[in-house]
Each structure stands twice: as C-alpha cells, then as structure tokens.
C-alpha cells in the first residue's frame, strides 16, 4: 500500500488502499477572507467538518427534531431487499462525503456479498478512522479510502478493486447544501466517473411545513447552534481570528423563494474583528450566512437529475413523505 503522490508506504494497514489526493487545505483562509468581504457576509459550509464539527454533527443526527437521519435510516431498512436486487452481487460501493460512515452499514448489510466499499471525504483523519472501523467489522469486504474534494469530480479510474457494479451512495441530503448550479455540477461530476451499469443512490430532503424544517435546524438543546458557532471558533483557532463568538446568535430560517433552510450567525451587537491581519466590522443585527439546505419535491429532484443526464428509476419515501431516496442511472439518451 503506497501513497499515490509520495510513493511512500502508508501506515493504513487495515485498508485495501488509502488514496490521498491532497485536496487543497490552504483555501480556508482565502475563502474566509473572501466570504467576509461580501455583502451579506457568508462562509462556506465545507469548513464545518473539522474533528469537532464532525463530532457535533454526529450529535445532531440523534436529535429528536432532526428527522433527516432516522427517516433515511428507516427507509434504507425498508428497501434493503429492493436495493440488493437492483445492485446485484459483488457491488462496489463508493460514498462521497462518507463522514462517520454510519448509514453505509445499512446498505452493506442489505446488499448481496458486496465486494468493496470506498469512503471518500475531505476530512482525512475522520475518514481513515471511519473506514478502518468498516474494514474491521466487514472482514470479507475490501475497504479503501480516498481523501479528496468531491466537488472536483470523482477520480475512480485507478481503484485497485474488482470491477463489480459501482454504486455511488450519497445520503444525508448533502446535495441540498449546493445552489442549483453547484448541485448540477456535482451530479455531472459523478456522472462522468460512471461506467455503463453503474448507479447513484442519493438522499434528498423534501419540502414540508416550515415549522418542522426550522425546528430541525434550530433544536431546543442548542446542538445545531454549537455546530454553527464552531465554524467561527475554527476561524479563531486556525486562522488567528478574533471573532467574539459569544456575541453571535444561531438562526435558522425558511426561504420559500429558493425552497431552502438558511443558517445564519446574527450579531447581537456591533463588533470589529481581525482575521490574518484583515479587519472586518459586523453591525448589530447583521448576519453571516453559513449554510443553505435546499429541499426538493419529487418533481424538482427529477428535473435536476434529468438535466444532468440521469433517469430516476426509483424513488422511495417514508409514510409521512419527509425524506426520499432516489436510484439514478445514466440515461440511455444522454
Ligand atoms: C453531513 S456529513 C455526511 C456523512 C454521511 N454521508 C451521512 O450521510 O451520514 C458530510 C461529510 O461530507 C464531507 N464533505 C463535505 N464537503 C466535502 C467535499 N467537498 N468533498 C469531500 N467531502 C466533503 C464532510 O467532511 C463530512 O464528513
């Protein structure tokens, strides 16, 4: 096992491979300075997931208000036999943005003798630990990890794996974090990496009553608030920022014009802060826009998929129609 770039033997002994594609790390500062220079101020959600942010996200998934994870898990339980039939034996499952790799267990347990699992995440430390746990728990499975930025397309050309049917598993409604153009570009990147017969299994959160949506992103225990505030605390920790996080309030609002929940950090009072020698002002009531979570109807999701050259062959939902999973295959016409 060797690092693809340095050629040195890697220490990731329990994984079939660890491919470090060295996603650029230096952009954090540039992106923060750019975001704080805009009106309104904004930050890129990709930076939520340092070790602390990933751990808080795991707490969010267990919150009573956060229906997303438990609903998606329940749908996966229900549709296991259908997924096994669709994927066939010996499937290779690739999970972009694998995080703590919890949902994947449902899929792996459902499939018939899957051949391999490949976790892909921008957060290398978290990725390696999560994939090693999968490798330990599924000894018959080849498990690999790719440290990469999935917005840059998927480079799967060199996977040292048996070539079964590849399933790209993209749960959690991560697709909803992208603006429509970005969601299109992301799915197009997946599409380009696919061979005939490959498929995408993707989770997408649904448009529903705003009160349920807002509660899911502004929980009573304040866990999502901690998650949101960790972003500015990370700027203070890693970029020497001087933001007074204690004078910012977490806010989740439903924006019906774009069918999305927006997360903001709103200033309780005027403050001035520095990041890497640059000074910024926040006025009382001004917000830093930190995340969008777009919601879909079956029709709006289908038109997104079609615009990229996918057919939506199956859509599964829970009874209350809170969340959907979709099975996409490259369209024969594309
Ligand atoms: C919300 S977690 C999802 C975890 C898991 N897939 C699930 O649904 O339970 C999102 C994960 O995506 C990763 N991520 C976010 N942006 C990414 C990017 N551009 N490239 C690769 N990974 C990314 C984060 O590091 C994080 O681990």
From TrEMBL:
A Pfam family reported for this protein in Swiss-Prot or TrEMBL: Methyltransf_33
GO molecular function terms noted in the UniProt entry: methyltransferase activity
Keyword line: Methyltransferase, Transferase
Annotated InterPro entries: EgtD (IPR035094), EgtD_Methyltrsf_superfamily (IPR051128), MeTrfase_dom (IPR019257), MeTrfase_EgtD-like (IPR017804), SAM-dependent_MTases_sf (IPR029063)
Protein's GO biological process: methylation
Domain Histidine-specific methyltransferase SAM-dependent intervals: 30-329
Domain of life: Bacteria
SUPFAM superfamilies: S-adenosyl-L-methionine-dependent methyltransferases
UniProt-recorded name of the protein: Dimethylhistidine N-methyltransferase
Source organism of this protein record: Maricaulis maris
